[in-house]
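We treat protein structure as text, and this decision shapes the records that our systems exchange. Because each token names a local backbone shape, the row as a whole describes the fold. An entry from our holdings is shown next, in its original layout:
>
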Amino acid sequence: MIKEINEGNFLNEISLSNIPILIDFWAPWCGPCNMLHPIIEELDIEYNGKIKIVKINTEENASISSKFQITSIPCLILFKNNSIAMKIVGFRSKVDIKKSIDSILY
């Protein structure tokens, strides 16, 4: 199960991770976000131990969304070594997301 993080634990989750972190910015009312959810679940299994995947509800965590200029969702941001390595806005296929992640990891 993918962990939901928030403003209270965001910094610890990002800064204490020794592996890259993929953040899925989403909202419950967002159709494309809901379509992306099963793909994110599959990626979590496939990349187990290589990346950590977490979710942030943009409606409940407006300050984080603002900080990273999340203006459209779904939005995926991959942090590597505490900095943004990749940002994908909008729904993408699993193949496209994997290509982007693999280009950062390998």
Notes: The mean pLDDT is 94. The radius of gyration is 13 Å.
